[in-house]
């Protein structure tokens, strides 16, 4: 039985990855900050370890075949690159050094599609495209790209495979994280939407892609885990249809988004944390589209529709109704910031 060590096991992707690993006969050790936050099923082949990524994890890695490093600083309101670097770069480098020392065969690093160049609907971005503005101005994307480069340049006995998922939707989005985009439209009579678009993937498919990468991923390669390119209005139309609502939809002019970006830039100069900044707002103007051709050809993944991803996410939120209603009213209805600033 192959043994896998997973970081970030309580998040949307981490939980889905652990579930898939266990379903496919792996033995899993998952590092979490709080055991109580893991909401997947218990299993005799799952060992949950409460601890910090900053600590020496060698005692857990000595007999591990593969590390899947998902944990990251993904907040969009931090105002210094160093706030991302210490988690997304420094800890990654430290964990990789421990993996090498312990003889771990493979190191899977879960990054983001935004370290790769996006494209259009006619010519979507792929793994060969270089990092592009506005994501070159994103401290989060910068820290992830720097970590990718470090791993690829320093791999020796431990093989490195980079996974670049796009925007994930699905069950087990406990915080919620990317599921905020569904809450932006759900139960609303009026929806304001930006004019751009992005690529969406079912979180379960992203987890499947990571499982395939354990055995099929080529060392030193990057793999986009991506599926459907959609404009924001088309995504919200899907949410409306699936949740049975018919709100009025109004496009946000690009100049308004730019204005909020300038306001955010000013607040950040005053050392005030905010999701708003010019690069985040510019990301909403563009069609941030990607291709999944490489992962389909090499991994044989059959991606599920965005409709299925939305349905699974909505059903999960309904099943967790008391907790999510509290979050919904506190974070969505009382928020004074735009919530379109997702990675």
Order of helices and strands: EHEEHEHEHEEHEEHEEHEHHEHHH
Radius of gyration: 19 Å
Mean pLDDT metric: 92
Distance between the terminal alpha carbons, to the nearest Å?
35 Å
Extended strand count: 13
Strand percentage: 15-25%
* Main β-sheet, spatial strand arrangement: 3-2-1-4-5-6-10
Sum up the structure in keywords.
single chain, 41% helix, 343 residues, alpha/beta, four-stranded mixed β-sheet
How would you concisely characterize the structure shown here?
It contains 12 helices and 13 strands.
Notes on the structure:
This protein is α/β, with parallel strands linked by helices. The protein has twelve helices and 13 strands. It has a seven-stranded parallel β-sheet, sandwiched between helices. Strands 7, 9, 11 and 13 form a four-stranded mixed β-sheet that branches. β4 (66-69), α3 and β5 form a beta-alpha-beta unit. α1 (12-23) packs across α6 (203-216), α3 packs parallel to α4 and α7 (232-243) crosses α11 (306-319). The chain is globular. The protein starts with a strand and ends in a 10-residue tail after the last helix. Residues 327-342 have low confidence and may be disordered.
List the helices and strands and how they pair.
Elements (H helix, E strand, L loop, with lengths): L2 E5 L4 H12 L3 E6 L13 E5 L7 H4 L4 E4 L11 H22 L3 E5 L28 H16 L4 E7 L1 E3 L10 H6 L4 E4 L3 E6 H14 L5 E4 L2 E4 H12 L4 E4 L2 H16 L8 H5 L4 E2 L4 H7 L6 H14 L1 H13 L10
Parallel strand pairs: 1-2, 1-4, 2-3, 4-5, 5-6, 6-10, 7-9, 8-12, 9-13
Antiparallel strand pairs: 9-11
């Amino acid at each position: 039985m192959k043994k896998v060590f997973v970081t970030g096991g309580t998040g949307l992707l981490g939980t889905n990855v652990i579930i898939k690993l266990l379903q496919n006969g792996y033995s899993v050790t998952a590092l979490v900050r709080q055991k109580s936050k893991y909401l997947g099923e218990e299993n005799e082949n799952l060992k949950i370890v409460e601890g910090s990524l900053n600590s020496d994890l060698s005692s857990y890695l000595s007999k591990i075949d593969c590390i899947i490093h998902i944990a990251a600083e993904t907040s969009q309101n931090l105002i210094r690159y160093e706030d991302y670097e210490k988690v997304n770069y420094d800890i990654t480098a430290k964990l990789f050094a421990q993996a090498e020392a312990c003889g771990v065969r493979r190191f899977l690093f879960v990054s983001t599609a935004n370290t790769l160049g996006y494209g259009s609907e006619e010519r979507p971005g792929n793994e060969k495209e270089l990092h592009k503005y506005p994501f070159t101005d994103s401290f989060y994307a910068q820290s992830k790209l720097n970590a990718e480069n470090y791993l690829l340049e320093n791999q020796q006995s431990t093989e490195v495979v980079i996974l670049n998922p796009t925007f994930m939707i699905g069950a087990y989005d406990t915080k919620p994280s990317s599921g905020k985009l569904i809450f932006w439209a759900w139960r609303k009579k009026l929806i304001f939407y930006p004019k751009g678009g992005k690529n969406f993937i079912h979180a379960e498919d992203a987890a499947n892609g990571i499982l395939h990468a354990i055995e099929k991923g080529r060392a030193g390669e990057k793999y986009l885990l991506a599926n459907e390119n959609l404009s924001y209005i088309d995504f919200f139309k899907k949410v409306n249809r699936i949740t049975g609502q018919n709100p009025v939809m109004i496009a946000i002019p690009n100049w308004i988004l730019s204005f909020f970006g300038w306001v955010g830039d000013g607040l950040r100069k005053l050392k005030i944390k905010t999701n708003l900044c010019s690069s985040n707002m510019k990301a909403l103007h563009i069609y941030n589209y990607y291709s999944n051709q490489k992962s389909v050809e090499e991994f044989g993944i059959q991606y599920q529709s965005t409709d299925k991803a939305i349905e699974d996410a909505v059903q999960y939120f309904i099943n967790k109704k008391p907790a999510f209603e509290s979050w919904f009213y506190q974070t969505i209805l009382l928020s004074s910031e735009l919530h379109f600033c997702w990675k």
